[in-house]
């Protein structure tokens, strides 16, 4: 993997890449135990910037040398790498001992801090936006990655099935969503891909304009469709499960609708040709 990453760095005419806590950090380090997802909350489509100072940095130069700078409490995560201990108010001093080039690729996380700090290290350094530099490599998962993702998908199936078997008339949408979270916590899941949704929609009680409004105080009654959007995270990988379940005896046209939807999905999947089918063709 590192060999392919280095080729990307060389192809972009970069001397190295510097990433704060992020998916790129995880990909280069190979560390799935470092729990960065909740310590760097400016990683979702540029909408969050609550974390601007990094607690960990990874620098990989074009020769393939990886150096990690982190606060003391994180060092045990990176035993396979060369680590410099530093503090969040001293990262720039430590970076000056690590950066060995003039064209440095950087990512989205802590972007403004990294740009400013590298200029303090060396005013002649040029920063190049490289958030997506390894994107096409990350698309193709290794057999080990696929196995982890498969296990997590099976866990998500089991979690939703557990809730479905324990649905009770009168429980609220909030109750159902909390049950999904509690199931994950009870079974040692590290975190959630996103807050789970179990959206209640009872037939004949809403207009088309209200189709995507899901009051969490809604109570479950027969004739309710439950739109599940659930994801768990473990060892650096996420599941994302979306299905709709009908509570109570479904009318015939609902049963036929579900069957048609499933048939359409199966037909689509059967037409996918690896390395050939474009997403726009689906």
Automatic annotation (TrEMBL):
Residues making up the signal peptide according to the UniProt record: none
Gene3D superfamilies from the UniProt entry: Creatinase/methionine aminopeptidase superfamily, Creatinase/prolidase N-terminal domain
Domain Peptidase M24: 147-281
InterPro entries: Creatin/AminoP/Spt16_N, Creatinase/aminopeptidase-like, Pept_M24, Peptidase_M24B
Protein name in the entry: Peptidase M24 domain-containing protein
């Amino acid at each position: 993997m590192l060999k392919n990453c280095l080729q990307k760095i060389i192809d972009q005419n970069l001397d190295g890449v510097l990433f704060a806590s992020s998916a790129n950090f995880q990909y280069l380090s190979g560390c799935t135990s470092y729990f960065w997802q909740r310590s760097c909350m400016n990683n979702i489509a540029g909408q969050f910037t609550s974390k601007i100072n990094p607690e960990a940095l990874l620098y990989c130069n074009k020769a393939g040398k990886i150096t990690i700078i982190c606060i003391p409490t994180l060092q045990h995560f990176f035993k396979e790498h060369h680590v410099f201990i530093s503090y969040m108010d001293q990262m720039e001093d430590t970076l000056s001992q690590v950066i060995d080039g003039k064209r440095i690729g950087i990512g989205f996380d802590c972007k403004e801090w990294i740009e400013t700090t590298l200029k303090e290290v060396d005013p002649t350094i040029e920063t190049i936006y490289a958030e997506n530099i390894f994107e096409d490599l990350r698309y193709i998962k290794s057999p080990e990655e696929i196995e982890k993702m498969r296990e997590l998908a099976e866990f998500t199936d089991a979690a939703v099935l557990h809730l479905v078997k324990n649905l009770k008339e009168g429980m609220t949408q909030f109750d159902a969503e909390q049950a999904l979270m509690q199931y994950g916590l009870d079974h040692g899941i590290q975190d959630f891909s996103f807050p789970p949704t179990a959206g209640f929609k009872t037939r004949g009680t809403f207009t088309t304009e209200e189709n995507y409004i899901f009051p969490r105080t809604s109570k479950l009654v027969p004739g309710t469709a439950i739109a599940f959007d659930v994801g768990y995270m473990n060892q650096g990988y996420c599941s994302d499960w979306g299905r709709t379940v009908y509570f109570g005896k479904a009318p015939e046209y609902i049963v036929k609708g579900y069957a048609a939807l499933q048939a359409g999905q199966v037909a689509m999947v059967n037409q996918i040709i690896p390395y050939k089918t474009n997403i726009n063709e689906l």
